[in-house]
């Protein structure tokens, strides 16, 4: 109900006249003159766009271009260029988004390794790249090479011992603090809008809200640079959500180069929807999942034409990223897996349990994170964003370094958790006791008893899981770029891997149990723990974001595990059901409401049995409705009304006595029209009559020149009766994208002329 109060707070009513209401969207069919005054049809910051007017303007523009194309060859060529401009914008967005994503991936890889050491042969090489180029690297020691030295080796010529460990520990923390401090300082000084994930604001902008500068050039530059810094610092955050923001900044930049999009906010949002798809495409290497993510999660208006263009933008972005090959594996993603064992029906039970865990984790995270963010906004804590980032970074680095599963980057951790244990794997998670008589092929290793390395990895993963759960709550929402996809996936992957190892050992030691007897024979490769990690990651990400279809598609594109769609679907649906049992809001909707953005979620259900008359303002008995008359108010009267009220628009009626609705005039356009008339039209003074009719009113001799404002009048405002159910009103605002709705009396006028004008 709080949302409805925010939406309907500008609604007006009066028992003797037209009742009007304003929400976040309206149809404003303009009657322009041949030379409309500057800035007409534009919007102020933190206001909503008029979807119906933008649609009407684009239709008029397209009709004019079509008619002119028949006049000459040049006009025909211009019409073709206009038709292809959308595809050109998509191409440019895909190229730039893919390039930036590739550069970010390469920079993060290098700077993350920089915290632990440096490559002597080429300092810009990461650890892996440095050892690739070495001729002295062996397969058994493929992570060690003379060219790569830890800081202790470089500074004190020691690689082992307490002093070397302490020095590496200290420099790890120091590098993390430097990266985080530089990031928060750049955001604070140059681009405050570069902080956070960006997806809540993108959703709000795509619904029609104006946030000037949020998709600007400075925001694009600073977010790209600081995203590298914060991910490299080791904080519990990801780059995937901010990459959507970066791609939308690219979309906003290129759309400003074409008047078709720069002068129409509705068309601009079609470009931004496609840009969001390109962002997810390069973030996860999932072009199809990116299109579905834009459709399911962020877009408010998504016509079929936008679907095709989103697909094209996602394709170009993915192709560009693949050409850069930032991961060095000739694939789009770091998490590609190849499992050699199918899943069995009996495994659906632990998969569903992981879904339950993901739903509970999502609920816990949303409630705790929103409580912490609300405390940050309402206490002195919010006044020291730099100090908060430094403290959280220090705590993260101090606790993370001793545990090898929290010391490494989160993406590398997830990749290791997803991997199947082959014969050549050297990870602790693959330290099984091998049968010396085993003669099976390398890719078909049977289940084996866990060795000491697996048990050590289990308790280290358990500690890492608790740490990630707690620290992510405090990290997400700080004044730095911060994504949530990767930390959520890491939590689920750790929990899933531990469950997978447990099921694997249970099946090995108790293969004669009835649940294992039919599908897990001795010496068979029955259980794949990496699959459980993948399912757990999907469950936790679904519990936090409440995604379903796009989540499953992203996960199988992310890992290449097409055969495992059913386990992913079971976990995603279960996590959503469990999380929805405690609250319908995902993390992005919760942050939208926390920040007070005007957003009508199409997934929300309106259950209150109220009427339009119960919600509109002012109510009966309150101050009368502020209105304009069609031909009896002076310029001074209009300016006084604007000055004394803060409404975004005013109903225009015939007169104070005959208060029949004529139309609706926006506040901003009234101000611009009067200002422009005083500058460009002679004879307009404070006592000039303002009229909204076609013909000027009859005035006494020597009266000042009247001011005609019919061109800014919406002659067909959307109206409902005062007894319209609120469920209907909310649906109208959602589906038509109205900016305001006028509420009229229910009874019809008996006079036929009046009945033709309005229905009261």
From TrEMBL:
Q: Does the keyword ATP-binding apply?
A: yes
User: Which keywords does the record carry?
Assistant: Antiport, ATP-binding, CBS domain, Chloride, Endosome, Ion transport, Membrane, Nucleotide-binding, Repeat, Transmembrane, Transmembrane helix, Transport
InterPro entries, per database record = CBS_dom (IPR000644), CBS_dom_sf (IPR046342), Cl-channel_core (IPR014743), Cl_channel-4 (IPR002246), ClC (IPR001807)
Q: Which residues form the CBS domain?
A: 616-680
Any transmembrane segments, and where? 84-108, 169-191, 211-231, 243-259, 271-295, 348-372, 384-401, 457-477, 484-503, 531-556
Q: Which SUPFAM superfamilies match?
A: CBS-domain pair, Clc chloride channel
Key word Ion transport present in the record? Answer: yes
Name one cellular component (GO) term. endosome membrane
Q: Which molecular function term from Gene Ontology is one that the record holds?
A: ATP binding
Subcellular location as annotated: Endosome membrane; Membrane
Main localisation, per the record? membrane
- Per its UniProt entry, which superkingdom is the organism in? Eukaryota
Topology relative to the lipid bilayer, per the entry, is: Multi-pass membrane protein
Name the protein family. Answer: Belongs to the chloride channel (TC 2.A.49) family.
Q: What is this protein called?
A: Chloride channel protein
